[in-house]
Design a protein that fits this description.
With 139 residues, this protein is an alpha+beta fold. It has 4 helices and 3 strands, in the order ααααβββ.
């Protein structure tokens, strides 16, 4: 074997990071920020209007799946209205029976200033709904 193959310090001139207009554009323009307040106010209205008066039925899983899907789809659609491009959107919706239990959740991430995480919760005597929406900026 040649020594050149064993040496980890050998660098190829073809393995350099590209520089060009795109790099210059990304560094000079401030990143778009997602406005969490617009989505939060929408979610505060959406959850009660969708779930008010609904009753948890452990035997009818299709109904809770339908509620979860409807809420998630509507939140994501609203996110696309607020900021149609430049972000990846993730929405999680969870609906459980309300048995008077407590709950605690935590979220630890390293965020960019332009990213957003919005959480809303709705409860009635029968169910608990937690909806979390993430807007993650993509270059």
């Amino acid at each position: 074997m040649s020594e050149k193959m064993l040496s980890p310090r050998v660098r190829s001139p073809n393995l350099q990071s590209p520089t060009g207009q795109r790099t210059a554009q990304l560094s000079s323009a401030p990143p778009k920020k997602f406005d969490p307040d617009q989505l939060r106010s929408y979610m505060k209205k959406l959850l009660p209007s969708t779930l008010q008066g609904m009753v948890w039925d452990s035997k009818d899983r299709d109904q809770s799946k339908a509620w979860t899907k409807e809420i998630g789809d509507r939140v994501k659609a609203r996110m696309l209205e607020i900021e149609p491009s430049g972000f990846k959107y993730v929405v999680t919706t969870q609906i459980n029976e309300n048995l008077g239990q407590g709950g605690r959740a935590g979220l630890v991430c390293h965020w960019e200033d332009s990213d957003a995480c919005i959480q809303e919760m709705y409860t009635n005597d029968s169910l608990i709904c937690i909806c979390i929406a993430f807007a993650i900026r993509i270059p």
